[in-house]
Batch of 3 targets.
Target 1
Amino acid sequence: MALSPDQALTFMALNRFGLGAKPETDLAGIASDPRGFLKQELDRKSEILNEPGLMDTKSALQALFEQKRVEKMMRDQMPATKDQPAASMASAPQAIINAGQNAMQPAPGMAVNDMAAKDMKPLKVQRDANLNESMARFLHAYAATTGFAERLVWFWSNHFCVSTAKGQEIEMTAGSFEREAIRPHIVGSFGSMLKAVEQHPAMLYFLDNQQSIGPNSKAGQRRGKGLNENLAREIMELHSLGVGSGYTQADVTSLARIITGWTFVGQNGKDGEPGTSFFNANFHEPGDHKLLGKVYPQNGVAQGEAALDDLATNPATAKHIAFKLARHFVSDVPPPALVDRLTQTFMKTAGDLKAVTQALIDSDEAWAAPPAKLKNPQEFLLSSLRALDFEPDDPKPLLNALNNMGEPLWRPSGPNGFGDTSDVWGSPEGIKVRLEVASVMAHKTKSQTNPNDLVVQIIGPVASAETKQAVARAESKPQALALLLMSPEFQRR
Amino acid sequence: MKLYCETPSLSRRQMLAFGGSLIASSFIPKFARAADGRDPRFIAIILRGAMDGLSAVAPTGDPDYASLHGDLALQLSGTNPGLALDSFFTLNPAMSNFSRLYKSGQAAVVHATATAYRDRSHFDGQDVLESGYAGAGQTPSGWLNRAIAALPAGQKVTQKSSLAVGATAPLIMRGPAPILGWAPEALPEAGDDLNRRLLDLYQHTDLKLADALSRGLDAARMAKGDGMANGKLAGGMDSAPGMRQAAQGAARLMSADDGPRIAAMAFEGWDTHQNEGGATGRLFNLLTGLDGALADLESGLGAAWSQTAVVVMTEFGRTANINGTEGTDHGTGTVAFLAGGAIKGGRVIADWPGLKQAQLYQARDLNPTTDLRALLKGLLSDHLGLGAATLGKDVFPDSDGVKPMQGLIAA
């Protein structure tokens, strides 16, 4: 069958840039203007996620602080005895959490956590928050029209990743961090996103900036403590300029000095509302500081914001972001002409991410590269659920699936995030586990659609004769659906 | 040639020699038992993929069988001889437990049977088999669930829950009646057959993925070793350990006083297009699993086995001829197995259509002469007490013309 250009572009729009077709996806509508269809999703604020019942970072951290306070109180007052180790621990934190839950209305379809009922262990607020945030995120991606905005969110969330492996504070706030610091900016300016991220409690905690003290600051003088360069280094190496782009160790140290005092209010609340970002002048290294040859005069928090503004529009940052975007959406080895064009757009618009994203969509290269890139586990999982008309009602199996496939949600092993090339995900174990996940979904879906019809809807324009035959000859519906999900046409984008 | 094969192998006297509960119930007319201590169990096993009935229960007495089924044909002599059921039919040697049950009057075979479905799509065929409708895509509920919903209230069978074995309920068990689900922990859903099919697809379309998958599967095989050991990871539902694990779990639950009385499970992997094997090989291995599962149900149900009826069915049969890859393609007529203490067994029930070219359905498949719904209606009527009107309207819609098969349950 000859492939009409419209059909090929429709498939590309949905899979390279989105989260795949759903049974009800209007393929003809997309075919009439694939590029326009993607751009429309950027105009609809579909990247914003504000379900009632999701806590903002401030409330989240306050709930965690309260849980810690009560746990400590219980430990201090009622040391666990041999006879009654857990009983006394269980009740009080539970009461706190119940109080916290009353304050928030669970969103429709949100998981009801049954842990407490099941084994009478105290329900940890951070686990509850993480499950609610995960569920809201899964449902948002599941319901998206094309999923393009969501894919951008995931891209930026991985670029500016935090990891729950760091501790309860991140487990508690990884979701709100994404909703507060990433989502509002994916079609805004890169500089705004950079500043929102680097001043967010989750990132400050993740990369230890709340511990970084200017040696000559009041606190530094008093306590004899000093800089922690962790956040400053990653801002330059990972978040903006990119490794090997010409900055020096002196620049890293200087940026670390510049952002000393960027922290958040702790449990005691003496500096403001617990859980909110604030600039601690007592930690800040006084004086003018030179970064990449430019002097930033002493100016409180504005000193660091000025430095981030310049980093955000640095040509090295433009190139770094352009390369990562093109690599993510188009090819493990992105066409240099495309990277150049995105870099130019970034520079011309001072990091207007809407313009850069539109330039990606408008380019010919982004559509011409063959679909060789293996979906990452998140893309695979959500595009599968969408294809199977399988609306999630419990985040736990999905989180387990992501764990097993090697992309645990909000839990990369380091600040560089998850890898973004096919070889990361195409390992023997990775593909084998992917097949198991596909098989489970294929068994669990209540989709009534004939698998042969689903092939047409989901991978129709590119489905090979072999794949069609394998699906048609499968011995059962679940087997047919698993083969569809595992077919190269569905796996690669 | 028409040959009616019904060969009871046990006399009434021999049957009475069995356990006390069987004797006690044997003398009471079945319709009078609804309100008494009778407590029947019913188990439906679906074989997904279309089982080759001519290799499972071979018509070795039919002069055309051996030439049609070629290398796959069962024989009564030589290495791996089949197990004679009577002078005409021979059971696959994989099924020694079934043979034992058959000889003791607790198992029967229905041959040359099929649902109302006459095309050859697995999906639609299974939909018809499990929905109980005459065509595919009519309803999201299954006939067994609707039968449960229609059972008269007050009996033990309705007071107890019903069980769907596996990570999800098969269609046959979906519907208005509430059901219980159970699956072995960490049941691996991707069975060997799916692995093989995907690997084959990759080898034709994506060599990188083929390499990754094959190495991933090798590693998993090595790691698994003897999977039964930890009691967790027995195998997929297309493997003997997986089938037996499912049966053992179901039997354990159903043997309990307050356990479920009705259950359904599905075994996979019966789509034997290549290297089907006959007296050994792939189909043999699958039948070994099924046979072991039946033995596990028998031993696991204990005393309850005497009031148990198990029906094993598949969406359709396979071609009478062997294809070019030492297998068989999608066909029509096939066999259904019955087992359990409640079954009036020891016989093959068949209105044998013959295997000459003109006698085959569309000149390729075993011609179905028994509507599977007649068998199922007979079981639901005599074992569970469902009335003809309900069976013809709610359970198997538009099937009034299909009369319930009489005498399947030991009275």
Target 2
Amino acid sequence: MDFDFTPDEEAFRTEVREFLSENLPPRNERPGSFLREWLEKVRARGWVGFSWPKAVGGSDGDVARQAILKEEMALAGAPPLGTSFMGLAWVGPGIIQYGTEEQKTRFIPDILDSKVTWCTGYSEPNHGSDLAAIQTKAERVGDHYRVNGQKIWTTGAPYADWMILLTRTDFNTEVKHDGITCLLVPMKTPGVEVRPIENMAGDRHFAEVFFTDAEVPIENRLGEEGSGWAVTISALANERSSIGEVTQMSGKLEDLKQLVRESRKQGAPASDDPLVRRQIAEFETKIAAMKYNGLRYLTRQLRGQPLSSETSVNKLLRASLEIEMDDFAVELQGQEGVQLQTQTARWARSSLSWPNVVIGGGTPNIQRNIIGERILGLPKD
Amino acid sequence: MNFGFTEEQEMLRNQVVRFIDDECSIDVIRTFDRDTNQALWKKIAELGWVGLTIPERFGGSGLKWVDLTVVLEETGRGLCPLPLTSNALACASILRSGSIAQQQEWLPKIANGSVIFGFGLYDEPNWIDKDAITLEASDHITGTKTFVSDALLATHVMVGVQTKNGPALCIVDGEAINSIALDVMDRTKPAAQVQFDQVPATNDRFIPLTDADLDYVNSCGAVAVTAEMVGAAEAVLALTSNYAKERIQFGHPIGKYQGVKHRLADMFVDIESFKSLLYYAAWCVDDATGDLSQAASRAKAHASDAFAQIGIDGVGLHGAIGFTAEYDVQLYLKRAKWARTMFGDSDFHYNRVATLGGL
């Protein structure tokens, strides 16, 4: 065992750090033009779509360098490397794997250059966790598909340019996973209507999306007709290493410890309370577990062994941490914790935002099914 | 970056698995006694496992605690009662805090299997601290050591004592003491009350313990016990998952039901987590001693509570069959209860994590 990176990899780390010290001013010193310039600079370095093939404009970045890049960016509290999280996380990889050459030239550069943002049309009113049962209908009519149906909980739909949309093209298959087709849809298509939904934090990031005779050209189909489920699975499996999330949560834990140092409970310093100390230590231990789980999985990748369902382990750990850390902070702050206008409202706000992370991309119970069925070999539901 | 085992370590693991299957199966451990131990100890000494962490110049294999972890995971999986942990701690103490003369005298004998140590540090039953060592020693020892692991399997014991210069470990011949077996819940972890009656103790038998030394020994103990817990917890998960695939109720294998399936999945998440924490702690013993206390405490704290619940749910998910003496899963529940407090329970270790983390 060792935790050393090679000299070449360390040189890459130094390069990233030097870039950050030159190009990432403190949060309160960033000019209005900062984000645009930042995106251009990281793009020029080849760090957007870093792992993608050079042929489509990526950098062929290997697994170790991907981890280093993510870790350093998270340590520095850097903004994202592109404006389209979903475009970079799964739409782009999906197009690289299943798209035609024409689709690659048409879509990939705009994702890398942060010119477009994407949203993901998977969940429907009656089909969330049971994704393969979707009912939004796409009928082939001449040189296009005519789409009718409804999506919901579509994060980013109110401001996205494009949607990766799961539709059903065949309602008569024996297996529900067959007959699904994936389409790439401009949000401006006539017949596409977005109705934002307010969430419990008061934000309007997700929406209902209605399709009424919306026409999508055939050349916007990703993969073969009826093979949409394979496209989806590969997109969801395109799981990133959790190293950036660990760094981000370690930072949050340090803030939480500072809150403990500054807080009183029952008239005494909160940091003397055995239950408070234990709770903080449990968070710290869980974050460390995520870190070392991640390094074990990274080692497997470095040895050329593909990851499978073990990524669900860190998703579950992260889900519980996201909920519990904010919840603990709000409780510790007592009467102050429930207010949204105080200086410490950061914790109150984030305690209302955890479903973004915890429910999006598969609920904890779905992750448990994945572990139970794919790793432990238990019978499917 | 290589947070995984080498081919050699995987070969060592396979060797231990074969040994457990052939020589120390569950049937053997149910009737394990001093004679069984003598016979098997000779074999594992020849295989080099007893002196794994002893430098080659003292007749050992010159390997590290990461290698020892591989052995302890597998002996833990089989609930093997061989006193590997006690002897690993004796080695670690002699190597860190013993004199050259003590190292020359004792380490070769441990490595070749001619000396076997029982190990007992504290007298207060639930206190991890130098003040919890209360047995007094001068040029002789008179008194009782309340809980010495493996004393009745051993040729010698290494026990915590208070001297006029502070806490120390003392090496005592088995013939000089009176060991009375304790009726312990987990019979794969035998322990004894050891009585000392005017037992002579010469200077060369004392290993002085600074605060840092004691912290190191206790952390090593936590690492060793956690390594055994990883293997044992995986055994419970395998046993219970297999049962859940075969046991039919309401027309389906019970593993199809989420009340069962999700609990098993959560066991997997817990085991993965304390396993990763353990591997890092084991690496720290030899390669990052400054991080050892924190790493060992994280691993032991997490494992202590998680394995305790895994033991309980392993029995519970089996239903009544799990409650029977004949069925093996109950043996693991007993191991979980033993392991939970040894070298510090979760309250102790989480508090230490908080302190070391700046609270």
Target 3
Amino acid sequence: MSIDEERGQSDLTEHSHNHSHEHGEMSELSDTQLRVRSLETVLAEKGYVDPAALDAIVEAYETRIGPQNGQRVIARAWADLDFRSKLLEDASTAVNTMDNVSAVGSHLIAVENTPERHNLIVCTLCSCYPWEVLGLPPTWYKSAPYRSRAVLEPRAVLAEFGVTLPDETEIRVWDSTAETRYIVLPIRPAGTEGWSEEQLAALVTRNSMIGTGLAQRPDEKTGGS
Amino acid sequence: MSNTIHDMGGMHGFGRVEEEVNEPVFHSNWESRVYAMNRAMGPLGLWTIDEGRAAQEGLHPAVYASASYYQRWLLGLEARALQHGLVTSEELAAGKAIEVNDRPNKIFKVEDAAGLTRSNFDRAPGGKAVFKTGDLVRTLNINPQGHTRLPRYARDKIGEVEAVRGCHVFPDSVANGKGDDPQWLYTVVFDGKVLWGPDAEPGLKVSIEAFEPYIEAL
């Protein structure tokens, strides 16, 4: 009856492959593209959205609001113990004292990795993620495999990211089921004594702030995710 | 809806977590437009974030499972725009406005994109928090038809209150058009074996953010 159901048919027949888009991409995408264009046109003509404002939102997430913010926050926490304790106490307030990080709203919470405890962030019910400090989430974070398995078998998930931790280490999974948003404060790598915040920030990967990675060691710095 | 496909915690069969190397912020232009429309429509005050979630949860499970993330956002936004009478299906089919919008409404402006910070979900409490850090609690066994944020894997389980997070808008109320109905929010942590049984991975602890109506004293 509805367009949603028609959409469903199209999805089921043409978009059943999560990762490989070689099959049916052109027809499937053009259908979705037309549909998006139609919705935007109608909403704009009726005065509900301003296309220039949409451009500005896209630009913000492609430039200003990304994991570089989180990297600077973590580097500051490693370099400045006073800031670290403020971050762990009230992350929203602490982050807003930084002038090289875009502003954040309410309910940001930082959780600290230690040799005894490794933290991992997930949202099993949708894909809640700390957009303001990490930008928009990667596809894997929003995927069914991650959302289903992170709470059930996080060690197996971590192994797929190349992270293996001792059995004695507690794995603490935070399911973001409300409007609180979590960011992991990873362990500062050894051999970085006296480094500047800028140098330290380069070791902070996005995944290390989600918990599916560790901060890079000085000898493995690659600038990866 | 609550007991449907979006509630994925603990499900089997979805396979490995695949990471895309050097993933772009958006994979195509339409994804960015869908995202931006959702962000721009939020501040209009026509619906809440929980109504937005509920709209996606209302998709048929087979549609939800096979649609991509931004396709779900598109379907959810279309459904709400239709429900709230902002657009008609004739207009969407035609790709242009047919009716005149004579309702006054706010609009998200270019300069508003300088902010884009999160809203505050704290609300004045109606009473004191019933639970405190360290309390042992049991989550309720509930299976509501409407929206809830208590995942199935964490229902009827004993856990410990680890933090009191303030008094927040209650999704189970606001998503169903019944107002904010503010409730105390707690971080409740469960042992892996409580959730998954004796074969749980070693050293596993899982927490959820639980609204006060989700839990009872032991």
